[in-house]
TrEMBL record:
A biological-process GO annotation: cell surface receptor signaling pathway
Name of the protein in its database record: Ig-like domain-containing protein
InterPro entries the UniProt entry points to: Ig-like_dom, Ig-like_dom_sf, Ig-like_fold, Ig_sub, Ig_V-set, T-cell_Activation_Regulation
One Gene Ontology CC term in the entry: external side of plasma membrane
Organism of origin: Sinocyclocheilus anshuiensis
Keyword Glycoprotein carried by entry: yes
Subcellular location: Cell membrane
SUPFAM superfamilies reported for this sequence: Immunoglobulin
Length: 189
């Protein structure tokens, strides 16, 4: 039981962490801005490295000493990622990702590093079907459980499963020990 409650606490903390991260919704075929800003503002862009990575740790965009460096960019982001150079001075290293597809859904990380400062930001991108193209797909709408609700259902299910598992382990071991004791009483050699 105690272990079960520990698991519940851990899951609650994890889910809180996720919900603190930035969430962005984009539509298939259109574009979206993934935000990333440094908290410190008086840093010179030419002293900074900014690395954008996707859920598979593939490169979307690198800014090395304030300059674009696209040699390592993953082909799937070719001509689809764009920065806002006029915003660098303000510590704003957001990127715009265009031609969105469902494959883009997931976690994006922005790493800002400087000799005296480093920061990581996580953005969660959710892709919704473009409403222009799919006015008639009623099946799509049935699947649209609000994100927070589905998160809670998942947590609840995990907790219930864990509690069931722990309870059954305790029950089984009790039965097993009783069985062993009985056996040794019955067969004294
Ligand atoms: C984005 O999509 C449009 C239409 O499907 C296509 O013409 C264009 O080449 C695509 N651009 C990129 C960079 O993939
Ligand atoms: C950063 O720049 C982008 C593009 O201009 C803008 O949409 C976004 O709001 C800016 N973010 C901040 C924190 O200023
Ligand atoms: C939905 O489908 C009907 C016919 O199947 C069509 O007349 C209507 O324009 C469609 N609506 C949208 C929003 O695409
Ligand atoms: C996107 O879809 C989700 C469910 O998949 C829904 O909860 C949300 O409201 C939608 N967002 C927009 C901006 O349509």
């Amino acid at each position: 039981m105690i272990i079960g409650w520990c698991f519940i606490c851990v899951f609650a903390v994890l889910i809180n962490k996720v919900s603190l991260d930035v969430r962005v919704v984009g539509f298939t075929g259109s574009s979206v801005v993934l935000p990333c800003s440094s908290i410190q503002h008086d840093l010179k862009p030419q002293d900074m490295h900014v690395l954008w990575r996707d859920k598979d740790s593939e490169t979307i965009y690198d800014l090395i000493e304030g300059k674009d460096s696209l040699e390592t960019q993953d082909p799937r982001y070719k001509n689809r990622a764009q920065t806002f150079p006029e915003e660098y001075e303000r510590g704003n290293f957001s990127i715009k990702l265009s031609n969105l597809t469902h494959a883009d859904e997931g976690e994006f990380n922005c790493f800002i590093t400087h000799s005296s400062y480093s920061n990581q930001e996580t953005v969660w991108l959710f892709i919704n079907e473009s409403t222009v193209e799919t006015g008639n797909q009623s099946t799509e709408e049935e699947n649209q459980v609000p994100e927070t609700q589905s998160n809670w259902i998942k947590t609840l299910l995990i907790c219930v499963c864990l509690l069931t598992l722990i309870t059954s382990i305790i029950a089984l071991s009790t039965v097993y020990f009783k069985f062993c004791r009985n056996k040794s009483h019955q067969a004294p050699i």
